[in-house]
Amino acid sequence: MPTVTYELPDGSVHEVDVPCGQSVMDGSVRNNLAGIVAECGGSCSCATCHVYVDAGLFDEVSDEERELLEFAEGVRPESRLSCQLIVGEGCGGVRVRVPDTNGL
Question: What is the DSSP letter of 14?
Fold first, then answer.
């Protein structure tokens, strides 16, 4: 099972085993990590699961995700919505940084 490392807004770091097929957002929510609010429950309609992640580990950004990111605070080139980041075998060791702008 791949391990995802979450860097939270408070500076804490958490390593979580996330089953393949689940999203980075699911891994955070199921482990009660602060910072990924996930108001829409993963339906790609709110951007409260905004994270920073290195490019190349996940599928390309969809048009729908890109449009939502336009309205998120603190967007950078490495911005993604964690509900759209589906964990696979090649994702082990991925590190996501959670901005402190996710509606908290």
Answer: E
**CATH fold of 3-97:** Ubiquitin-like (UB roll) (3.10.20)
Give the integer Cα–Cα distance in Å for 19 and 2: 7
- Give me the mean pLDDT over the 56-64 stretch: 85
Per-domain residue ranges of the chain: 3-97
Number of helices (H), then strands (E), belonging to the chain: the values are 2, 5
| Average pLDDT of span 59-74 | 91
For residue 39, what is the DSSP state? T
Rounded Cα distance between 28 and 102, Å, is 13
Tokens representing residue 59 in the block: 């599928």
Spatial separation of the C-alpha atoms in residues 33 and 24, rounded to whole Å? 11
Question: For residues 31 and 61, what is the distance between their CA atoms, to the nearest angstrom?
Answer: 25
Residue that the structure tokens 């950004």 belong to: 61
pLDDT for 11 beyond 70: yes
